[in-house]
Prior knowledge:
Blueprint: H1 5-10, E1 34-37, E2 40-43, E3 48-49, E4 52-53, E5 56-62, H2 69-82, E6 86-90, H3 97-103, E7 116-123, H4 135-138, E8 141-148, H5 157-160, E9 167-170, H6 176-182, E10 187-189, E11 210-212, H7 223-233, E12 237-238, H8 247-260, E13 263-267, H9 286-293, E14 297-301, H10 306-311, E15 317-319, H11 325-336, H12 341-354, H13 357-367
Helix pairs in contact: 2-8, 2-13, 7-11
Amino acid sequence: MRPSRAKRAGALPASAQPCLTPGIRAALPGARAARMQNGHALACTPRKFAGKLQVMDVAVILPGGRGWGPVLKLAEIAAEHLGGRLIKIPAESLPAGRLGKLATLLPPPRPRGEQKLLVIASIGDHLNAVLRSGVRRHYSYVAGWVIDSFWEARIPRVARSRGWYDHLYVTDQQDLDMWAAAVPCPVGVLPWGADVAGAQVSWADKQVELQRVGRQPQVWDDDDAVAAAAANAGVSFAGRPPFGDTDEANQAFVETAYRQAKAVLAFGTRTARAKYNHPTKDYVTARWTDSLAYGCLVAGQVPDTPTAREILPSFALVQLSDTDVAQGLEQLKAALTQYDEEKFTAIRTWAREHLDWRSRLDQIAADAAVN
């Protein structure tokens, strides 16, 4: 049985409900954007910046499962920064297969309004959000930002068809030519970033010399074994953060880990494979950029991509062996002798100037002619 509108709205975070309606159709411009909570109607009105109305809503697709907390946080920052509504869409509600293909056989409807939309798509398939009933008609401009843009097979038909998207963005320079050859609209590169402005951390917080976050090569994957080796080497070590019951709780545990760490253990997909990774491509993920936002060294092996070389500063990177933990710990100890409050501050400064999500969002707003 389809849940009632009230029940679906109740599943949304309370902090987001004033600017959310249960499903994208009700959140579109011109639709009734007020709902009852504790007997009071809450109107959803875009914010004003510099005296002008901001008109860029943000839609994010909820893929289900853990690990997507950084994408959801990006969407929240985007809605706040661009002054629009945050619209959360369950992935299972997207048109797919034959239905999605049929929807792209007809030209998109002529837009009736002046508002604009940013679709944050964890994978290319999530660009199908614009195929939902009424979406494209209500927005004069639609941009899409694909986070895992390295999957060529997941460039959907809606992106390849003219008129559905006005601008698309990928997260790595290595993916640009692939997308530009496949889609009719302009394609830009907006690398993975971090909430640098929101990262609350001080030098006094740095109490753990090596913090494990995420997948690791086989020899680094057993936290108990690595902890024992680290103790023998005189290095304080913390294993993987606990998993939360929600994406928000999970993200909070990870951010606590970054806050306390001097160095974060992170290896690219070349040496730390998982079934959900691309079989040949390497790429930057949140571990690198979030670590830098919190002033950490990143210890392991850096993704070998043009964008990684551009946004990850060499002075904050420590190359570790992916086959010998004892050797890797000695490499780390040597780097930690040069890690002090001055370097912590330098890493934070780099992150603020090069990695904050808001600078990426400013580019999207400029491309969309949003004040």
